[in-house]
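Sharing a chain and its predicted structure for anyone who wants a worked example. Both blocks are below, sequence first, tokens second.
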Amino acid sequence: MFQNILCPMDMKSRSKLALQKAIQIAHQFGAKITLLNVHPEFMDREEREMLRVSVEKMEEKFRQIAVESKEEMRTIIARLHAEDITVEYLLRDGKPEKTIVEVAESIDADLIVICTDGRDNLKDFVTGTITENVINSLVCPVLVIPYKK
């Protein structure tokens, strides 16, 4: 039924809970998992130049963050004993709610497993949570795992 599962990861404990469920489903259906880590803090070269920061230093910092994020995702997969599952690691910049949708469409995801802890700030009440935006923007099934703080 499911062959291509997308699991957004922000490296918080709630996303690890979603990954556990994604692994369980992947084992059940022999599916592939794509782990997506989105960094809204990354800026393009033009933005960095406008802020008058050292472009080279920022690029090195972003590269370091990306490498650390990918390594942390690999460590989590190993800890969850999911080495037998095909896992693709994606790192992107941008707004998570838009990037998740774009990646889901580009990889033809047939399931998204995401965790939410609900609305926890004023912005969430005004613009909606990342999870709400993903659900309202996609046609594929989205499995939402509730996370109690």
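Comments welcome. The longest strand covers residues 32-39.
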